Each structure stands twice: as structure tokens, then as C-alpha cells.
Amino acid sequence: MSEPATTSAVDRRIFTLASARSLNTLGRQILSAGVSWELYARTGSALTLGLVGLVQVVPVVLLFLASGNAADRFNRRNLAAAAVALTGLCGVGLAVASALDAPVPAYLALLLVMGVATSFHAPASAAVVTSVIPRPNLGRYNTIGSSMYEVAAIAGPGLAGVLLALIVPWQVYGLTALTAFGSVACYLALPTTPPLRDNSDPKTSDRRDWRVGLRFIFSSPLLLPALTLDLFAVLFAGVTALLPVVAKDVLHTDSLGFGILRAAPSVGAIMMALVATKMSPWRRPGHVLLIVVAAYGAVTIGFGYARSLPVAVALLFLGGALDNISVVIRITLEQMVVPDAIRGRVSAVHHVFIGMSNELGELESGLATHLLGLAPTIIGGGMLAMGVVGFVAWRWPGLRAMPPLAELKPASASTN
Q: Does 175 lie in the same domain as 239?
């Protein structure tokens, strides 16, 4: 029997689930930073660093069909726990590989397996939220969860740097495995719910089943424009990939300054999340979403003109705060309108498109900077993001009139 959903029980579920996901994020951040540092020190090859990212992204793209279906057919809590446990085992494997001074392909093979774990963890962990958190508390969970995620995202790379200065890499990977197993314990402490079945179209074959998630997103008058805003804001206005260039060539700062620049957006997101816990729910969340994404584009334009470290940090901080508002609204919107029976498949598609927008944005930023220069790329990206806001507001006018998120109901899961 699951625990009654009293206020104290819901609060425990919120913090337990947020802890499970943030511990996984912390471990993966430390692992990624540690492996990149060790392999670059061994090889001196930037191509090797590119392969580190590539082998972790490829499984997410190739397996989103299988992972989405798995999240809808099996116990989501147990699936998320199993995926994190696999990540922990990869940490153990990397510790052994490092201790034995194994060749680079051995590292890449283990990271490929970790990418497989991520591809299954992402939709399962997203779908399990509505299985254990009551609908009226989803906004509170997303605010707390995003705050804890940002803390993990900030602490991970910094902690990896400190640990690598104190101990050898294989010991760092061993400690990372402990965070994964801590995450597993948190997942297993959550109440379990039976898997749901999609009965919307019993004639649909398993082979065509994955298309449910795609069709739902592209037919949704609210979710599709929200995802479009997020996708193109990251694609055009994201500047993370260009921060080393900005730090060195524009602001003339050192690695510490670069670290401060990297941390600023996450600090802004955390502060906004803390402020949001004291605020009433947005009465017109669609209107707010359009405003904050447009403001994010404007902040990016300002960043393109920044010539001092304090100004650049302040703008990145503000950008992170705006992005947090957008993320909380978008995630809560998805949780409210997606039928639970297809939530895993929708989350898998969401993870591919939004997750891949980061890598695609890095490619776009690097190519545009090579062709146009740094400042035109940043400033032009901010302008394009603002233009996308105008297009979305015109193309999907219903987004502006979206009622409070708590009033939304799951839409039809029909696959016709």
C-alpha cells in the first residue's frame, strides 16, 4: 500500500524524488568532468573530448522509441532506479579502467553504456513524477526539483575539479558511483504504482506505438508552442558553448573568471526557484512564457555587447533566472496535459528534441562564430529568439490565453 497523500507525505515524496534526480545529476556531472579532464591530460586531443560527448548522446537518439515505450509499459520507479544503478556500475567500471590505465576506447565503451542508462532514465524519471506527486503539488515539485537540479549542475564540475586536485581520477569515479547508489535508494523509497496501458487505439500495433508521443506533441495547441519556444531559445540564444571565447578574447579573464561565467546562469536559476516558492501561481502562464523567452533573447543581445566581467555575469545570472521560469512552466504544462498512459513516450520525444537542442545549439554557435564573428553571432541569436517569440504568439494565439496550470486537464490520447 502506498502512503496516504497527506501534506507531510507529499513533502517527503517531493524531496525524495528531487533528491533521487539531483543525486543522479551530480554524479553524472562529476563523472563527465572527471573523464574529460583525465582523457585530455592523457591524449591532448580535443577530438577525444568530442567523442566523450558523442558516445553519450547517440544512445539517447537511437533508443528514444524503446525507452519511451518502456516507461509506459513497466514500473517507472523501478525502471528509473535500474537506469541509475547502471550509471553507478559504469562509474565502477571507469574507476577500474582508470586504475589499470586502460586505453581510451574502453572509456568510450563505458560512456556509451552510460548513455544507454540516460536514455532510459530520462523518460522514466519524468513520467514517475505524476505517479507519486499529486497534481495540485506539481508546481511546487518542479520549483524545488529544478532548484536542486541547478545546485547539482553547479556543484558537479566544481567538485570534480577539487577532487581531482586532491585524489587520483579512479577514486573520483568510485565516489561518483556512491551518488548513483544513493539515488537508487531514494527512488526505491518512493511508493510504487502499477504500469498503465494506452487503450486509446487498441488496433495500433506495437511497431507503430512510438508514434503516439510524436502525434500528441504535434497536435497539442499548448505543448507544441511551448516546446518550440524552448527549442529555438536554446538553439539561437544559448551562449554556453561560446563562454570560453568570451572569457579569453573579450573579457580577458582567466579560468576562474570562466568558471564564474559558467556558474552564473545556474545561480540565477536557483535564486529564481527560491523566489518562486513564495509566489502565487501564474494566472496567465502562457503570457508569462512568451514574455520571459523574449526577455531571454534581449538579455542575450545585451551579453553580446558586454565588455566587463561583472556586467557579463549579471546578464548571465538574469538569463538563468528567466530560463528557470520558462522551464518550470513548460515542465508543469507537460505534466498537466499529457495523459499518464502515454507520458513515457511523450517524455522520450521531449527529451530528444529539447536535449538535442543543446548540442545542436553548440554546433550552430561554433559555425556561426566561425563565419560571422563572436558578437554578431550572440547578438543575432538573441534577435532570432525574440523573432521566434513573435512567430509563436502569432501562430498559436491560444498560448497567450492559457489558464492557470492547475486548471489544465489531460488532453485526449487518441492516435488518429
A: no
